[in-house]
Amino acid sequence: MKIAIVSERARGRGASEASWNLATKLESEGHDIGYFFAEQSELAHSHFRLAREFGSWEETNFDIRKIRKCKHGTNKWLNELIARRNNLARIKSSLMAHLSQFNPDIVHVHNVGAVGGHNLVASLGRLYPVVWTAHDRYPFELFHNKWMIDEREFTTWEYSPNEQPAMTGFEMFKSLPFKIQILTPSNWLTKIGNSQFSSSIHPITTIPNLIPEMGKPAVKRLAQSLGVDLVGLSVITDTDYELKGFSTIKQAMKQLKANNPDKKVATVVTTTNHLGLSDRNIYSLFDLFYLGILTDNGYLSKTDMSKLYAGSDVLIVASLAENMPNVIIEASSMSIPTIGTDVGGIPEVVQDGKTGWVIPPENAESLSIALTEAAGNPDMRIEMGANAKESYECSFSPTVVLEQHEEIYKKCASEYHKNSWFKLPYSEMELGATKYPAQDLDQRYENMSRSGLRSKLNVRLSKLPFIGKS
Fold first, then answer.
1. Measured between alpha carbons, how far is 302 from 299 in angstroms, rounded to an integer?
2. Comparing 77-91, 268-282, 300-314, which segment has the lowest mean pLDDT?
3. Where do the structural domains in the chain lie, given as residue ranges?
4. C-alpha 10: how far from its chain's center?
């Protein structure tokens, strides 16, 4: 089967790593893979038979920053908005041109919020059967990550330049001849998506991210060389980001040291912001060990991560909000139990008392107690690790996850070919023209009518040569 994998980033952590792993496994199983991404990546070109760049997600993020700095409705805001939309049009046109040459049987979209989001997926759905994996709440709420926790709002990034979404993303799919199939890695996110279920898409299905086995557990643990009873590993993208719970880890370590001085616990934290430390060595600060970045692209390589997992006794995920963290599945593949918070999809993979400990979020005392219990019960850790490995083999192994994806691909492709006479014709943009569809700006025009912005927009529309043309 010819499968196109589309992602903002070629490789990294989280969603990008999941798309890379899936594409790699599919290609190794004999599928014809085209890997399409919105950044420069020599690694992708050397790794896949067919790899193509179709734009720059960093450039579109910069566009959004410029828009958000402008006062809503001003001339400058309108100019920046139009510039961004033309930039998105060029990105979409480039991807469509690459896909028309590859002619895939199925298109599997991953994180594309910064390079067109629902609009891009809708354009793909005009021509191909589309599967879209939702790695966060963005496909359902038009926000990359927007969380409400104890009446506090956390938003990592708002891809839409609107202050509030004008319509749900599913509405963009109503006119498509084929239903979009949306996947999520967790039942928790599937439930959120199905609460906004639309007849324009297939029922949302849960399929975990494909996470390959990270390696074999080390016989000699890092705890021995550090002279401690337990080594906990925490993989945090940015310790300044409150949702990742780094402050809870620090508080728990202080409490553990004060209340249980006989238990020696070290926590190794990997980050992408160096915590203000420029050296790449391990530093010791009140029994926390900070590890600098080991790769130039801001992410630890699989080899580096395997060494960290192999040397650790337990994984710590203290997040206030999560979907389905890849790191828990990675740790499970190496027989490492997890101390995780009771949020999002974490309880689906961490079974309290069996494969790890499930604790309340923002609760340093509970984390301290779990660390103390883990440090004082090595046999329990080993048993939990074995259970975690068994869970990985049964539910998250590459073979299991690949079969689930292949079944979805076949179902969507079959439906598409049965009704191929409904296929919509190519537009100029989908053949490669760098023009943004007028109807999209018309929708913006209608949305602005209540804000008294029509007259300003009329002036700005005159600068777009394709407005009014078919």
1. 9
2. 268-282
3. 2-211+399-461, 222-396
4. 12
